[in-house]
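Note to self: keep these together.
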Amino acid sequence: MTSPFEDLLPSTQRALLHRIATAQAEGRAPSLVAAVQRDGRTVWTGSRTCVEGHGPDPGTQYRIGSITKTFTAVLVMRLRDEGLLDLGDPLDKHLPGTGVGSEVTVAQLLAHTAGLAAETPAPWWERTPGTSRPGLGDVLGDQARMHPAGRTHHYSNPGYTLLGRLVEAVRGEPWGEVLRREVLGPLDLGRTSEQPQAPHAGGWAVHPWADVMLPEPSVDLGLMAPAGQLWSTTADLCRFAAFLAEGHDKVLGAESVREMRTPAAPASPGDPFGAYGLGLQIVQSGGRTLVGHTGSLPGFVAGLWVSVEDGVAAVALANATSGLSAPAVAADLIRIVVEAEPRIPEPWRPLPGAEVDRELLALTGPWFWGTSAYALTLVAGGGVELQPLRGNGRGSRFTARADGTWLGLDGYYLGETLRVVRREGGAVSHLDLGSFVFTREPYAPEDAIPGGVDEGGWRGL
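Structure:
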């Protein structure tokens, strides 16, 4: 049934317009364009500009800077899903001779934990053409590694150059060609490109103490392209946001994009951008988790965030070097929509009859880990959920395996096995979860409690 709430309320639309108008005015940006998507559908677009009558539209290109890294990460995850590499592989296995060390892995590069430098050696790579850095040695410098691999989250632009070269080495084609064929084409991102295509915004620097502007250079980044080259539009980035929330059968499945959204590295001390997944930033904003990426290059700032739980995404793009935080604007647009028009829950429906297993149903209800009470409940698809009944215990969801066990999907028990242990004759003795014993009663004498149960039983003082 189609939702009757597809369009935003006029009051919500006005609040969104007010937010971007305030951002453009106070941030002194030549122009700002933004969009909001809900449940995979763009429900609002808006723009502000300093030139009357020439506001950008959802098809106007802006440079998106480091949002490019998420596209590069998708290409690497595709290689993994095809079995052409493993995230735990050392980079040298597929791209030898880089000089970063044999212990640096693909996963560490994706999560910025490889210990590489944040930037290239001088000159400033964002304002100089890629021809000034013709080889990896020019990108990495004499000291490619600054920290032990796998120990510290240290954002690295050269790290994504290495990932781009990895894609090229495995595919045997330039990064840009692989990107167009494997991501941009299937996702219908026809206005996302390596070079600007009209109509596009020009990049500007605004003087910090006067209302005057200066054009910023727009250079081809060469080897650094996988870290920040792309131009895109709010329309294309909304489609990309829908992919990051749900996956796409021709690009990456839902499980793989969920893996990208899972924290792989904590934030560094003082880092305002929170944790990092595999090519995705993960932040807490207004009590909700946002995933996406920020971006900036001289003349441009960009922000793309998705609240998967709320089904809302937002994009904000501006053509100013500084003064306006496009990521903060995008986060605020999500907050405005979610608070003004919270998602309408789906109707409760009973499980399909084919999924009601009588033996499994008999396992539901309370279980005790020691004296801590838990509840086992059934979920759709033959899975179960084990959650504490009070306090802050360790809960997880589990999916059914063919051998009658369940695999942990999240939380403390991610990847752990839940199994039913039976007595002779077939009666259920207890649940075994990663060696932890869950029983129907706390410390019942007949239960198989490691260490045994005191013969005197429960007693008072």
